[in-house]
Amino acid sequence: MIEFDHVSLRLGNFSLRDVSFKIRQGDFYFILGPSGAGKTVLLEGIAGLHSPQSGRILLRGENVVGIPPEYRRVSLVYQDYSLFPHMTVAKNIAFGLKMQGVDRHTIEQKVEDLLAAFNIGTLRDRHPLTLSGGEQQRVAIARALAVDPDILLLDEPFSALDPLTKEKFIEDLREIHRTRDLTIVQVTHARDEAMRLATRVAVIIEGKLAAENDVERIFNAPETCEVARFVGIENVLEGRIVSSSDHVVRVETGAATIIAVSDLPEGEEVAACFRAEDVTLAPPSSARSSARNAFEGIITRFTPMGPLMRVSIDCGFPLVATVLRDTVKEMGLTPGSSVRASVKASIVHLTVR
After folding, report:
1. 24 close to 1: Cβ distance less than 8 angstroms
2. Which of 8, 28, 4 is nearest to 188 (CA)?
3. d(CA 154, CA 79)
4. CB 266 within 8 A of CB 350
5. CATH numeric code, 2-220
6. Is 0.85 topped by the overall pTM?
7. pLDDT (tens digit, 9 = 90+) per residue, 172-187?
């Protein structure tokens, strides 16, 4: 459905550099990256607002570089919604249809259908500045869908929504994707949104494609240290494989030796990655678990996370664990407590440096 073929694009001091990826028909595709990475520029390239200096952008197999936005069957919704403040909700939704020359009766029927579908019928005669962020978001999506696009582009659609409204809108988007068979491309820096909605994910860092894969691989088996840290893997220890036998390797990091399951050869420069929730804590005097990796350490800090507690530990290297708050109380843990942190070898993911 969408293909970037070695696209390079310069805007002032920023540039996309040799970006290539494909988005399949019906994907809910997420583009992740830090602020200023180039995520919105990619959306605007698909929409036709920017043309690359080199490379091709293909829609449905056709190179659309040079083809105006109105001929691409693409709708783009910005994070500030970009509604026309002088128009009512109904007129905002009808705007694209009028620009296409659709007859009045069809426009009226389509607007009524969308008002009902998004449960905003009571807002039809109100103006955008009188609406809440969630209401404006619904109007913006309804306006985008009114022209029956093949592709819906969303630029951080949840950034201005409160948690309850965001939760409802995530479910709305999931339903829109399911019932309309739309190809949706959404950009964000929020990892949780991609984990809940995405079929595939690209990670853009400093104008370059850092990774592209399905959700499971991106978040649990990243290809580089840079991507591992961006997707929120708390423990990333760089080192070198010092032995490899029967699918089990030993990684020497300088501060610790990590055991992992891998077929990588001895001598490979790697990073051992594992998430905080995969770390088990126990008193140093307790019987050792079956985990191949165990580190003695001192707790340096607690960070509350709702029913969970993020525990920072000095093991001669910084290590982070996430446990239930009740577990912290039951174990009597405080800053300065000694603990044993354990991680199974099968959980440790190695990335090549």
Report:
1. yes
2. 28
3. 8
4. no
5. 3.40.50.300
6. yes
7. 888 889 888 899 999 9
